[in-house]
Design brief:
six-stranded antiparallel β-sheet, three-stranded antiparallel β-sheet, 3 helices, 9 strands, 27% helix, disordered N terminus
């Protein structure tokens, strides 16, 4: 019997550690934008996730009653109803099922410069393409390199 409890305890401990790690990664790496039905309808291709980062597929946005959104969470067998603001619960308490817009990965290019005294700095603007950044950078004698940057919004 001890072995069974130990095994269950180990599984629960691992699951809790994984969950906490996932939550920390979400907090450190992403600031999720709260869901808004009007914004979603304007751009239904926007990726939607739950508070804890699970992918969501919006099934319906005009269901009758107080919760017009019906959505299926990737790892669940069931679909759930949501309010227009993406909340799962009515009394304002946060829920792991609350909906958010996922961040979008962006990329751009910046130029690095170095003056005759050896002081390096990064130019004040970013560019959509490497070619555009290099073309601008090479106009200056202090130009050193063009660097790709990535971020999430």
């Amino acid at each position: 019997m001890f072995l069974i409890y130990g095994t269950v305890f180990d599984i629960i401990q691992i699951a809790v550690q994984d969950y906490i790690t996932k939550q920390i990664n979400i907090m450190l790496n992403k600031i999720l934008k709260p869901f808004n039905l009007e914004e979603y309808l304007a751009n239904p291709s926007k990726k939607v996730v739950t508070r804890d980062g699970e992918s969501v597929r919006i099934i319906c946005t005009d269901y009758y009653g107080e919760k017009p959104i019906i959505a299926k969470i990737e790892e669940c067998e069931h679909s759930y109803p949501f309010y227009e603001d993406g909340k799962f619960l009515s009394y304002g308490e946060p829920s792991n099922l609350d909906l958010f817009f996922d961040t979008e990965k962006k990329e751009g290019w910046i130029n690095m410069y170095k003056n005759k005294d050896g002081i390096s700095w990064i130019g004040p603007e970013y560019f959509a393409t490497k070619e555009e950044a290099e073309k601008t950078g090479k106009r200056y004698i202090d130009y050193m390199a063009t660097i790709k940057i990535e971020w999430e919004e």
